[in-house]
Design brief:
Layout: H1 3-14, H2 19-24, H3 28-40, H4 44-55, H5 60-76, H6 78-85
């Protein structure tokens, strides 16, 4: 899995404004990731990014900054990368099933924060 995708998944779990975050932010996974970040990164810009995202979760810029810091840590720190991946779903854990009938039916799966527009 690419570092950017790992960072995106972490932000989706932590950010209560994301659809997934609303469901998981109060869960053990969300709390465990926050704990890991706070214990591991106590100084410098990373700690500041954590604090700002926590104090002002509605500010998208704070989440973007935290995502950049997480991605940088993933690239530079193999131990952190292994630790954080324990909290993320494995690709084999994700499945999709669709029963579609009728003419002109469309099935779409959206992964991440991207937008999909379908015009007929």
């Amino acid at each position: 899995m690419e570092y950017a995708e790992i960072a995106n998944q972490v932000i989706q779990i932590l950010n209560p404004a994301s659809d997934f975050g609303l469901k998981v932010s109060a869960s053990l996974t969300g709390h465990a990731i926050w704990d890991l970040l706070k214990k591991r990164f106590t100084k410098d810009a990373f700690a500041e990014a954590i604090r700002e995202a926590e104090e002002k979760p509605s500010n998208k810029t704070n989440w973007d900054e935290l995502k950049i810091r997480i991605q940088k840590a993933l690239v530079e720190d193999e131990d952190f990368r292994k630790e954080i991946q324990k909290f993320l779903p494995k690709s084999s854990d994700i499945s999709m099933e669709a029963n579609v009938s009728g003419s002109g039916s469309v099935v779409v799966q959206n992964v991440g924060n991207s937008h999909i527009n379908i015009n007929k």
